[in-house]
Amino acid sequence: MIENNKIYFSTGEFAKLCHVNKKTLFYYDEIDLFKPEKILENGYRCYSHTQLELLSAIFSLKDMGMSLKEIKEFIDKRNAENVIKVLNYEVSQLEKEILKLKRNKERLLNKIKIIEEGIKYSNEIMLEEQEEEYLLISDPVDNTKKHYDIENYISHINYCYDNDLGIGYSVGSIINKERLENENYLEYSYYFTKVNRNICDENIIIKPKGLYVVGYLHGYYDKAPKLYKELVEYINKNNLIIIGDAYEQILIDEVVEKNIDDYVIKISIQVA
After folding, report:
1. Fewer CB near the last or first residue (10 Å), C or N of the chain?
2. 253 — phi, psi (to 5°)?
3. What is the CA radius of gyration of the chain?
4. Of 133, 191, 198, nearest in space to 164 by CA
5. What gap in Å lies between CA 159 and CA 22, rounded to an integer?
6. Model confidence at 162, in pLDDT bands (50, 70, 90)?
7. Judging by DSSP bridges, how do beta strands 133-137 and 190-195 pair with one another?
8. Contact 85, 75 (CB under 8 A)
9. HSE toward the beta carbon, residue 12, CA cutoff 13 A
10. How far is CA 33 from its chain centroid?
11. Phi, psi of 133 (to 5 degrees)
12. Global pTM?
């Protein structure tokens, strides 16, 4: 139907044109969100072609996460300034969502990378050039605890979680140079989590770039002392010197494997 230079459609025609269910148009009419432009004497609803853009805008705002109540308030009070204000707000929300998605992607890619390294681990001890890394460390580990410093460990995990610092790496452990030289392979100095370089926190240390002796442990943590002894023997045999700490990084853990004997842990000791 054409009237006063406007093309009118029945509810069914308009719904089909906009790829929407008729019931949606009835509901929007009922809540005064989007009403037909005119109603005929027989009660038939008629929508004009000029309403297409408004309905499209409603769907777009809904896709952005706005509730129908918020959309109605926006439409009732709409003018150029309000539209700009709302759209700028939605842009800022989208930017936050994009940042969140990027971080989640980074976490997943990092997790994939370390699992792949764990799958391809070698039984051979080797020398490896490693890049500088930023590590968020825990409070000093209390080695007088019966098993391990669980309170400190959990506190460290919670701190990373509360401050959104995790980037896909499991919590690792550090044994300092002095304890290594004294063969104290079960006395950890700190727990650590690898973080991005642009993080500012007083508890961040830099794992130095340089040469490391590397070995992989296939099994649970209680087997670590044996690997440490083998790494130190390799260092001495090849006339190397320990110049830094040891870093234990778990590559395959309980998230990846059900059996603790299938864990894979990488130990790196800085040498020269």
Report:
1. C
2. -130, -160
3. 31
4. 198
5. 51
6. very high
7. antiparallel
8. no
9. 1
10. 37
11. -135, 150
12. 0.75
